[in-house]
Amino acid sequence: MSKKEESEAVQAAAFPAGLEPGTEEEPEDADMKRAAVKQQIELYYYQLTEGCGNSACSNQSCASSGSFSPLSKNDAAVQALELFKSKAPLCSPKPRKVARTTNDRQTTNGVRESISAPVQCTEESHKSNLQGTGKQGDRKPKFLTEAGLQEMLDGCEKNGSFSPVIRTLGEVFSSVEALKHSFCKAEPETQASDAGTEIEKHDRELSEKEIHKEDELTIDVEAVRRSYAALFRHSNSGVENALLNGLISLSPNVELELRYHCAYQQDPRYLNLFVIILENPNLHSPEYLETALPLFCRAMSQLPIKAQARLARFFSSYSAERLRGLVETIQQLITFKVLSGSFSRVHLVNDESAITSAAKVLSIFYIASILAGEVELGDTDEPDASLQRRRHGSSESDEGQERKPTPLQVLEKEVGARVINCRCPLLPFTDFHNEPLNEQLEVDKDYTYYKSQLEDRFSFLNYPFVLTPATKSLALYYDNRVRMFSERRMTVLYSLVQGQVVQPYLKLRVRRDHIIDDALVRLEMISMENPADLKKQLYVEFEGEQGIDEGGVSKEFFQLVVEEIFNADYGMFIYDEQTHMYWFNPSSFETDAQFKLIGIVLGLAIYNNVILDVHFPMVVYRKLMAKKGTFLDLQDSHPVLYQSLKSMLEYEGDVEEDFMATFCVGMSDLFGGSSTHELKENGNNVPVTVDNRQEYVDLYADYILNKSVEKQFNAFRQGFHMVTDESPLEEFFRPEEIELLICGCPDFDFKALEESTDYDGGFTRDSQTVKDFWELVHGFSEDEKKQLLMFATGSDRVPVGGLSKLKLVIARNGPDSDRLPTSHTCFNVLLLPEYSSKDKLKERLLKAITHAKGFGML
């Protein structure tokens, strides 16, 4: 009988008449009754299958009794129910889910058990594990200390029997009270106590100050690790079984106590048991992944937000290797459950509690990684209070209601550190991505749950760190489309009510030769008259051309606009030859309206799912997310200046005499004229010294990245947020991911494109023309590959997730002829005649991608 069948049998026995699921009763009372009944029946069940371990037991319903006949698992479950109904006596000590001997066997599902054979357990060893009684004669479990456990191990090794250790582990690891008091930090005399010390005495020796200290737990982690090492040094399956079964027994009780009895608020030491369990080096093994770890994650996900924050701070003190081990264990659980489950459009991964609770637990480790990384707490660079509210997750929803912050945002606020403030976490952000989960996730359904904010619906978009940029970009696409349809619907309703014809699209009619004038003038009028129209679906029409915009025409429009905007003749941006990046020109003659319109264009590109060929340093995207530029940002945007200032900070000589610098910045304009700006009052007379050089560097960076371009950038940001202000863009993405969203992936992997391409019109993967095509393409230069992408898709940029996400279609366009290849850029379809030779295909294809321009009707 498998473990799953065994669990189901016990579960069935745990619901006698009157306590069946679905009974109309108060949820809390019903849950507590079911838990109590199930626990009592389990005690009978394990008495029948495992016994109490006493070879002289006289209980006829105990497996340890000499006259007892072994039962099958199903029979034992039925008999356990009968014993419960008749209130039959239980052996003392009460049986636990612990093996009774050190002789091993392997079950069919890979979980190690012990053979039911009697063991010798002396009275002395028994007292060292469990002694004393409660008010009604029940034994009270004792906590573990490193010294006491080691003493027991030494005694067991000497006697050749590990039964006392196994029994003690079973008692402690299945008891909340015992486990949360185990391995606590204490005074030297307390640390010398053994496992037989009373919990009440231990409480007196722990000071109130230590118990309630905000960020530190009372657990001695090093003692826990040494104890686990000592336990597993003996390779005893009974020990492993005791820990496994103890966790299975413990977790439901923890979940109930946290959910209904506010256990953490009553005793902050409650967190100790989570640390002890997570330090188990075998937690990633298959035995735990199937049942024990999912139950534990469900319990841990019930922790209140203050407890989660406290654990995050605690785990932030871990080394990268230790924290990575915890993350990999939870990731293994998610992957195991995703791959072993049968998910569909009806049964979603969102409905699997083991996966969702594991994601919640993973958020604690994610925040711990952020806290342990390079976190800066600089000022925000956001002038608009409404945008500040959006940044903290309280933006208004489509219905005008204020949106609740996500669980991750609440946790960020509790620990006092946001992800945007972390430049380099302890673990790479990619360590938290789970590829199998992303492949299985139904993004449209998950987005629906995200928007509904219903407590009984779990959305992974509330935990975006576990999702890849490609998955999040798809969710953003759905969000943008929903807003477009909403605007279109409102336009139609307005037309019916007002009796006026209103354009349901954001329609731009432009001339190729005057694209900037036509586009920016039209956008300026819309932004002034009715900014809401910017959130309609974009529809572009080139004057004199017949192309119908289904996406491809818009792509070329943005490409042409970007080329013109960053033209040096406009003087709006400065191009750095070394970094190949553009920066705002602080002495530009263009008005704020021009920079505002550029921000609108950038926002429209994201809103309409178009990738642009723009080259901004990362600080631009950080500033768009309300972060001020700092000295570290100069490394990306102004590398020469960064190295100069860094050398000043590291200089060991006389800074004042050797550098001869003052608190001033010299600037030059487009015409070669120079000007001086004082970084502080009377800065021209303040020399830079060893004592104030850090202040000088900070002020210098602040002027270059913030103050000198404040006017231009504020206008640019205002235009960008006119389109994206209601979007979850900043909630889903980090600055580097927003850059990826706007600029696309830099990897031109045409092998991946070949693998993902579909064929139509008579072509197949084995067609000779198709084979010749890919041989030619793989031999193209990078510029020629970009031209091919531009010709076939309307953009030479690689989408988020790589070229495998492009879904190119190559269709046969008739037999051999002298016609050039053509394309439907709106649908990424490349039309190829079945050319008679490879040379002819090359000549025709290169001519098409090099000289093609404009749209027409085929």
UniProtKB/TrEMBL annotation:
<dbReference type="GO" id="GO:0005634">
    <property type="term" value="C:nucleus"/>
</dbReference>
<feature type="domain" description="HECT">
    <location>
        <begin position="530"/>
        <end position="858"/>
    </location>
</feature>
<dbReference type="GO" id="GO:0042752">
    <property type="term" value="P:regulation of circadian rhythm"/>
</dbReference>
<keyword id="KW-0647">Proteasome</keyword>
<keyword id="KW-0862">Zinc</keyword>
<keyword id="KW-0808">Transferase</keyword>
<dbReference type="GO" id="GO:0048731">
    <property type="term" value="P:system development"/>
</dbReference>
<dbReference type="Pfam" id="PF00632">
    <property type="entry name" value="HECT"/>
</dbReference>
<feature type="region of interest" description="Disordered">
    <location>
        <begin position="116"/>
        <end position="140"/>
    </location>
</feature>
<feature type="active site" description="Glycyl thioester intermediate">
    <location>
        <position position="826"/>
    </location>
</feature>
<dbReference type="GO" id="GO:0010604">
    <property type="term" value="P:positive regulation of macromolecule metabolic process"/>
</dbReference>
<dbReference type="GO" id="GO:0000502">
    <property type="term" value="C:proteasome complex"/>
</dbReference>
<dbReference type="InterPro" id="IPR032353">
    <property type="entry name" value="AZUL"/>
</dbReference>
<comment type="pathway">
    <text>Protein modification; protein ubiquitination.</text>
</comment>
<dbReference type="GO" id="GO:0008270">
    <property type="term" value="F:zinc ion binding"/>
</dbReference>
<dbReference type="InterPro" id="IPR035983">
    <property type="entry name" value="Hect_E3_ubiquitin_ligase"/>
</dbReference>
<keyword id="KW-0597">Phosphoprotein</keyword>
<dbReference type="Pfam" id="PF16558">
    <property type="entry name" value="AZUL"/>
</dbReference>
<keyword id="KW-0090">Biological rhythms</keyword>
<feature type="compositionally biased region" description="Basic and acidic residues">
    <location>
        <begin position="198"/>
        <end position="207"/>
    </location>
</feature>
<dbReference type="InterPro" id="IPR042556">
    <property type="entry name" value="AZUL_sf"/>
</dbReference>
<keyword id="KW-0479">Metal-binding</keyword>
<dbReference type="GO" id="GO:0030518">
    <property type="term" value="P:nuclear receptor-mediated steroid hormone signaling pathway"/>
</dbReference>
<dbReference type="GO" id="GO:0005737">
    <property type="term" value="C:cytoplasm"/>
</dbReference>
<feature type="region of interest" description="Disordered">
    <location>
        <begin position="381"/>
        <end position="407"/>
    </location>
</feature>
<dbReference type="GO" id="GO:0080090">
    <property type="term" value="P:regulation of primary metabolic process"/>
</dbReference>
<dbReference type="GO" id="GO:0048511">
    <property type="term" value="P:rhythmic process"/>
</dbReference>
<feature type="region of interest" description="Disordered">
    <location>
        <begin position="1"/>
        <end position="34"/>
    </location>
</feature>
<feature type="region of interest" description="Disordered">
    <location>
        <begin position="187"/>
        <end position="207"/>
    </location>
</feature>
<keyword id="KW-0863">Zinc-finger</keyword>
<keyword id="KW-0539">Nucleus</keyword>
<dbReference type="InterPro" id="IPR000569">
    <property type="entry name" value="HECT_dom"/>
</dbReference>
<dbReference type="InterPro" id="IPR044611">
    <property type="entry name" value="E3A/B/C-like"/>
</dbReference>
<dbReference type="GO" id="GO:0048513">
    <property type="term" value="P:animal organ development"/>
</dbReference>
<dbReference type="GO" id="GO:0000209">
    <property type="term" value="P:protein polyubiquitination"/>
</dbReference>
<dbReference type="GO" id="GO:0006511">
    <property type="term" value="P:ubiquitin-dependent protein catabolic process"/>
</dbReference>
<protein>
    <recommendedName>
        <fullName>Ubiquitin-protein ligase E3A</fullName>
        <ecNumber>2.3.2.26</ecNumber>
    </recommendedName>
</protein>
<dbReference type="GO" id="GO:0061630">
    <property type="term" value="F:ubiquitin protein ligase activity"/>
</dbReference>
<keyword id="KW-0833">Ubl conjugation pathway</keyword>
<keyword id="KW-0963">Cytoplasm</keyword>
